[in-house]
Amino acid sequence: MNFSVLPPEINSALMFAGAGPGPMLAAASAWTGLAGDLGSAAASFSAVTSQLATGSWQGPASAAMTGVAASYARWLTTAAAQAEQAAGQAQAAVSAFEAALAATVHPGAVSANRGRLRSLVASNLLGQNAPAIAAVEAVYEQMWAADVAAMLGYHGEASAVALSLTPFTPSPSAAATPGGAVIIAGFPFLDLGNVTIGGFNLASGNLGLGNLGSFNPGSANTGSVNLGNANIGDLNLGSGNIGSYNLGGGNTGDLNPGSGNTGTLNWGSGNIGSYNLGGGNLGSYNLGSGNTGDTNFGGGNTGNLNVGGGNTGNSNFGFGNTGNVNFGNGNTGDTNFGSGNLGSGNIGFGNKGSHNIGFGNSGNNNIGFGLTGDNQIGFGALNSGSGNLGFGNSGNGNIGFFNSGNNNIGMGNSGNGVGALSVEFGSSAERSSGFGNSGELSTGIGNSGQLSTGWFNSATTSTGWFNSGTTNTGWFNSGTTNTGIGNSGGNLVTGSMGLFNSGHTNTGSFNAGSMNTGDFNSGNVNTGYFNSGNINTGFFNSGDLNTGLFNSVNQPVQNSGWLHTGTNNSGYANAGTFNSGFDNNARDEHAEFVTGNSGLANVGNYNAGIINVGDHLSGFRNSVPTITSTANISGFVNAGTSISGFFNFGSLMSGFANFDDEVSGYLNGDSRASGWIH
Predict the structure, then answer these.
(1) Which residue has the higher pLDDT, 231 or 334?
(2) Can you list the domains of the chain with their CATH numbers?
(3) Is residue 59 a contact partner of residue 18, using CB atoms and an 8 Å limit?
(4) Is the pLDDT at 181 greater than 50, yes or no?
(5) What is the value of pTM for the model shown?
(6) Where are the extended beta strands (E) located within 121-217?
(7) Continuous segment of H or E residues that includes residue 329
């Protein structure tokens, strides 16, 4: 980890946000107690066996017992010394942490410094604060250097502590343990049919069980110093992460204070990218949600450097613009200042053309309103288009104000409307309903994606809010074909049904792995909870193909669970390969196996959820017209292809209870419609 590139806001927060030295002090105390108990047991055992061998029990059996007992006593003595070493190293880790914490700048001091800088910059109208700004920045640089030095020192000392640990010596009976398992510190390994319960860690200093790593207070981690469960990585405060320094669950990446992110340092959930403050972004440096692009401030933008919502383009300030550098709403073109302009370089509202100043002009280079033609100055009709009811309309058949498109009911639209029962404001899209939409055939507010229903969706055929991935049902999803909230997986295969998954095809929540049924799994194809290994049925397994709990070994079997037909399945009664869950089966007599399902009773391939029939579905009871179709459906009780939402039948749809193709909204029976009841 390169701590020098992280500002003091992050390094200080990482040091002060954790549980402190308490858990490691408890571990040191526990190891000290264990060392004493093992030493006492060794002395007592040796004394008892010596009395037996020199007393009434003589002969060959006594001699054999004496040899075995001496071997076990030596192992107890060695284990006591190793436990004492672990206690000392845990105490050394505490000392290293306390020294680093003392050398780290308090987050409050960093925040105060940044607040002082913002105040000075805001009042620096004439440059009078330049010396004070320089002084504040110099102090900030000193904070940065102090934090980096503290973190590097802590990393070096903690690494030295871990490297100096001696692995526990197996007991004399370990060679006879089922599955090649090692019994450490007296924990038993039980074999209950094909169900195994392992109670050991394959490293030192762990407070939990089933870890492949050191100093984990949690269980089933592959890595070190994790304060949660089933993480693959180091220093995670949370569960089901693949990466390090995460403060949430189900992340794939590093330094995420949220959940379900794929990337680095996202303050929020469901992002694909880095340095986002918000949820459901596909890109980096976004302050907001549901954006596709970089450095957007707002929601539902497709592009870069936009301030507002529902823009398709770059550097727009406003809503529903299609183009670049527009200031206003519903403009189609570039560098417009105003709303509802169809063209470029206009200052005003409802102009159809370019470089106009005024309202409702049809033409170019006009100054005034209602002018038809080019290079005119003056006043024309209330509307320069035909069949309009209102003022400043340069399009045709509009009811309202400043529309340069046609057949709109509303204000400031440069796209064409749907007609009766739909109202449009500040939209540049064709046949959209709502406010500030630049996506064609969308219903809602601030959608730059086509055929979306909801608010601030930047991708196509989504139902919900702040989705930057396609065909999602829910909120803050940056992956594709997800049903739920904050899912960033699914872009290459199928999304998940649940919350905050960064893997694909999961049924559950907080999974950074893929094709899992359950929660907090960082491995793949697991049925259960908190598994960092693969193809397990159960809980807290860091090995592979285990059926049970707390196992850190790999089992030499084809499946975990029960009654499968095929290989690499977990759960119960699945047919095929790489399925998790229950009763996922072939869809007809011509297809023997299925692949990549999670959940319950799915028929097809790569489905997540319950009773889906087809391929690439997430949700509940979704289906396709033919058994060979790739559906790409999310939601509940949909039939067709490329659908999100509820109770829809057709293709390319979002919303609720629609029955045709290319539709968004609610209760529509016509094709290419948005809004309500068309």
Answers:
(1) 334
(2) 3-169 (1.20.1260.20), 483-653 (no CATH)
(3) no
(4) no
(5) 0.69
(6) 189-192, 195-198
(7) strand 327-329
- The greatest distance separating any two alpha carbons of the chain, rounded to the nearest whole angstrom, comes to 125
Given a contact cutoff of 8 angstroms between Cβ atoms, the answer to whether 202 and 214 are in contact is no
C-alpha distances out from residue 215 to 23, 201, 301, 399, Å:
10, 10, 44, 69
Query: What is the token pair recorded at 305?
Result: 């450097």
Cα torsion through 331, 332, 335, 337, rounded to 10: -20
Question: Tokens 């383009």 sit at which residue?
Answer: 313
CB 239 within 8 A of CB 228: yes
DSSP state of 279: S
Within a 10 A sphere around the Cβ of 663, how many other Cβ atoms? 30
Residues constituting the chain: 678
| DSSP 8-state class, residue 452 | -
Residue 495, token pair as written in the block: 């999304």
Using a 10 angstrom Cβ sphere, with 0-12 exposed, 13-18 middle and 19 or more buried, the burial of residue 128 is exposed
With tokens 């858990």, the residue in question is 23
pLDDT tens per residue, range 290-328 = 999 999 999 999 999 999 999 999 999 999 999 999 999
- If we measure between CA atoms, which residue out of 251, 218, 556 comes closest to residue 210? 218
Q: To which H or E segment does residue 142 belong?
A: helix 130-163
CA atoms within 13 A on the CB side of 59: 3
Chain segment 231-277, per-residue pLDDT in tens = 899 888 888 899 998 888 888 999 888 898 999 989 889 999 999 99
Six-digit token string for 335:
């560098």
Residue 376, amino acid: Q
Residues forming a β-bridge with 317 = 307, 327
Using CA atoms, how far apart are residues 344 and 346, in angstroms rounded to an integer?
6
524 phi and psi angles, rounded to 5 deg: -115, 150
Q: How far from the centroid of its chain's Cα atoms is residue 115's Cα?
A: 30
Cβ–Cβ under 8 Å, residues 252 and 240: no
Counting beta carbons within 10 angstroms of the beta carbon of residue 377, is it exposed (0 to 12), middle (13 to 18) or buried (19 or more)? exposed
E runs forming strands in 387-435: 389-391, 399-401, 409-411, 424-425, 433-435
Query: Taking Cα atoms as reference points, which of 539, 601, 526 lies closest to residue 571?
Result: 526
- The conformation of residue 165, written as its DSSP 8-state character, comes to P
Q: Which amino acid is residue 350, in one-letter code?
A: G
Q: What does DSSP say about strands 307-309 and 317-319: parallel, antiparallel, or unpaired?
A: parallel
Instruction: Output DSSP code: residue 169.
Output: P
Question: How does DSSP classify residue 236?
Answer: -
CA distance 185 to 207: 12
Q: Which two tokens stand for residue 526?
A: 């697991």
Amino acid letter at 400? G
- Is the Cα torsion angle 489, 490, 491, 492 positive or negative in sign? positive
